[in-house]
User: Fold tRNA N6-adenosine threonylcarbamoyltransferase from Sphaerisporangium siamense.
Amino acid sequence: MADEPLVLGIETSCDETGVGLVRGSTLLANAIASSVEEHARFGGVVPEVASRAHLEAMTPTVERALEQAGVRFSDIDAVAVTAGPGLAGALLVGVAAAKAYAMGLGVPLYGVNHLAAHVAVDQLEHGPLPKPTIALLVSGGHSSLLLVPDVAKDVISLGSTVDDAAGEAFDKVARVLGLPFPGGPHIDRAATQGSGTAVAFPRGKYDDGTLDFSFSGLKTAVARWVEAKEREGGSVPVADVAASFQEAVVDVLTRKALQACRQYGVQDLLIGGGVAANSRLRALAQERCDAAGVRLRVPRPGLCTDNGAMIAALGSELVASGIGPSALDIPADSSLPITTVHV
Assistant:
């Protein structure tokens, strides 16, 4: 293992400053500094607050990762950083820091795609990805279905959300139900005390034949149901509403994912992104994959949310594949397409 390159990964696409260290396919450190509490009072991520938090957290988080891994700056062989997509200001902080580290250490720089990194990180836990793999990425900003022949070179978009992403819908519904931000973990927790069949919420684009998603109508349906209940003077059954909303989301996500597997003849499904930590999504996906004869891969929850380990993992994959480094003048691209794995 000592002969394999040591890659430093930096992630600053949203509200987490993530720094990871990976040697080959072995995770050595995964340090995270989250600014989520600073955003909670606003009910969502404030870009300017996130950027400032990244600036303050960058150096101590890098130092913490080095300490966790028991390595020094001089041991680093390459630096990888999220070049996009994400919040423009937040990305700029990470890209600038990565350029400085790469230049100062005299090592190559790899600007990578945040979404592709959510796929690559699974290799740290479950080994090399089957080629090809269908990947379902679900987070606060993205709900995407991908065909992944080779995560280092070839990622193909099959479908995406046409409005709200799944994680965004979780946050908005949590606000309607009076639950804290971020909404995903709180809805997941509340749902364990409720019934997923208590309220028949709609499933957007359920039978439209595409691999796209839509959660805006579901979010609105929940809000209207709650408003009607309050107008009647009754109490809102938070647990039942949370469970029914969650069931609608994961029903659509898993249905479309298995549809993609059938359509492209792929027997391996990977689920990644922050919403992949949802317990009901993991359970229903396993149930449906078992029934369909599809092998399911889901990273542990700590690797599903944004982190530096996933950036280091993709950087390590690029190095191992013999792909050349990025130029030192790479931009931060807030709308970087998923098909661009490396900039």
Notes: The domain at 6-125+303-321 is CATH 3.30.420.40 (Nucleotidyltransferase; domain 5). The mean pLDDT is 95. The two ends are 27 Å apart (CA to CA). The beta strands are 6-11, 16-23, 26-34, 78-84, 109-113, 133-138, 143-150, 154-160, 268-272, 295-297.
